[in-house]
Design brief:
about 40% helix, binds aspartic acid, VC0802-like, five-stranded antiparallel β-sheet, 2 domains, globular, about 20% strand, 15 strands, eight-stranded mixed β-sheet, alpha/beta, Carbamate kinase
Length: about 450
Amino acid sequence: MGLKVVKFGGSSLADAEQFRKVAAIIKADPDRRYVVASAPGKRFSSDVKVTDMLYHCYDMVRNREDITDYFKQISERYNGIIRDLGLNFDISGELDYIRNAIMHHSGRDFAASRGEYLNSLILAKFLGFDFIDAESVVYFRENGVYDDEKTNEELKKELKNHDYAIIPGFYGVMPNGTIKTFSRGGSDITGSIVARAADATIYENWTDVSGCLMADPRIVDEPLPIKTITYSELRELSYMGASVLHEEAIFPVRYAGIPINIRNTNVPTAPGTMIVSSTNEYDTERVITGIAGKKGFSVITIEKDMMNSEVGFGRKILDVLEDNDMPFEHLPSGVDTMSVVVSTSYLDARRERIIASINKRVRPDSVVIEDGLALLAVVGRGMVKSKGTAARVFDAISDADINIRMIDQGSSELNIIVGVEEKDLEKALNAIYREFVK
Ligand code: ASP
């Protein structure tokens, strides 16, 4: 096998015991050469992530509060790990420097980034790997957008100097030398960036679940794990709220054709989920790959007699949305009606303005907004090849005595989107799951 890039999330590096599991996984395979590390996460459910503690320090300084005592808890998280691992490693100088820098307004992103920085120093020491600071290889542009070309070029060069290395996730550097972070959960993105630059055969993303599940375990009881999912299917499911991976983490590896393997640090023998760019194989028995759903949508329904023959009607409605900076999700339409499904939270700030503009632009017979819609997506690359999937979805929903408010199937047949009342979402998801997974 070729080179592997591995990323460990915060819960995988939360304490010394987790560090030992991580080290065993890395040492078990000499191809695991580049490791991206998160900051220490929660050790138990009421615990606080170090990243959150660092943001808190930043806020305290802004409120002119003294962080000395609070910062001791952060120092203790790291010193505890070092002590419990039995390492001979003194990071007190680093900790003093960081505390002072935060006290002297070094910036919110700088504060947050130190979580991964310190954890990576310790992991490098523990494994005997080199340490590559993300600040010297991950670049952002002046406008704050990640600079993929420069990063790929510089990182490629730097990796050639190291056989085995640890790279902190989550942050990089601005052209003026200040630290900038990705959005929360951004170590996933760093892992993907490193995998691309290293030309890895696989990007292993180690977390605390055994891969992506076919449904949300808070809604469906013990859903099965997904063995293989394509990037497009994953996008559809994450859009509907399923989350295992930072959304932006897909792009660097997707275009390089590198598969992502989601694995569980606490159950290293489980194969996890493979995320691939394409595959001809699918689960012929179950047909679907996964289901997910989200609440908080509204439908704007515009009615006008003979709308169908009025050239430019749709464009005018979309213009109104654009002028109001309003994204839309779906456009299910009839002969004389056009419906626009939008997110209620976006709509709330612009409700009156949008109704007034639609009335003015297209002079409809009526414009009605209904709230309380939930959308659910049934996703599966196998649907295009198997007959009757849509019928099974609708039967399952109606057998559960649930009213379907909207249906939308993309022409790619990768997904079927169904709109139901918010109160029916959980019941509908369970009904569909039962229909396909016996
Ligand atoms: N530590 C950061 C966070 O909590 C980044 C990450 O873990 O991916 O968001």
